[in-house]
Write a structure and sequence with these properties.
39% helix; 234 residues; six-stranded mixed beta sheet; alpha+beta; Cytochrome Bc1 Complex, Chain A, domain 1
Length: 234
């Protein structure tokens, strides 16, 4: 059975209940990704996803992981051109704890020391990515096709953009894009819809509303180009 509800602050709730299921998955889909970045903050969506696991006002980075591990959750996050997604799968009886933990990921404190440390991790991730020919080829093809449009942005960003990125840049982006009316909560599996609505009201009703506008889509020129990448170390 399908369910739908919207909180007064604009947070959209959707669900598909399957009473015969033996697990439940909950996810928060933030309608922001690399296509919503300018060249100056290229890679900020993915970087922010990493920072979400560094803690909130209620949890340290260790607590984030311990709270998920205590309930045997399969949890993670990912960033794409279109969205940033945080999710967990658990046994049905642990839905309240999982909902709390996943929702809290969307309220990071963005500490400066965590930011500085994670920047090194991101730069290393970019370096590993660029050592994969298929990944490099995909990014080059995307950039050639979309040209200057933001859909041509690298999800990870570039070494130049990540080095230049500041915590203040990230916080400004977070406040613009991580608004309740720019988020969809999705749940599937064995659950009671009334409980899901109650959990959303408990943990998310104080989230602010704000901007939902995205950069406009333009027709890609589709002009082909030749790009040769020479990496003797690969």
């Amino acid at each position: 059975m399908f369910h739908q509800h919207k909180l007064p602050n604009g947070l959209q709730l959707i669900g598909e209940s399957s009473p015969q299921a033996r697990s439940v998955a909950v996810g928060f889909f933030v309608r922001t990704g690399s296509r919503d970045e300018t060249a100056e903050v290229c890679g900020v969506s993915h970087f922010l996803e990493h920072m979400a696991f560094k803690g909130s006002k209620r949890r340290s980075a260790l607590d984030v992981n311990l709270d998920f591990d205590r309930i045997g959750a399969d949890y993670n996050a990912f960033t794409s051109e279109e969205a940033t997604v945080y999710y967990a799968s658990i046994l049905p009886e642990y839905l309240p704890q999982a909902f709390d933990s996943v929702a809290d990921l969307l309220r990071p404190v963005l500490r400066q020391d965590d930011f500085d440390m994670e920047k090194k991790v991101i730069l290393e991730e970019i370096s590993r990515y660029e050592d994969q020919p298929q990944s490099c080829a995909f990014d080059r093809a995307k950039q050639a096709y979309f040209g200057s449009h933001d859909l041509g942005n690298s999800i990870l960003g570039t070494p130049t953009s990540i080095i230049a990125l500041t915590r203040e840049n990230m916080e400004a982006y977070y406040r613009r894009r991580y608004n309740a009316n720019n988020v969809t909560m999705s749940v599937g599996g064995a659950f009671e819809w009334a409980e899901v609505v109650r959990l959303a009201e408990k943990h998310c009703s104080d989230w602010p509303s704000g901007e939902t506008v995205r950069h406009g889509l333009v027709e890609a020129d589709g002009a082909g180009s030749l790009s040769v990448v020479n990496k003797p170390t690969v």
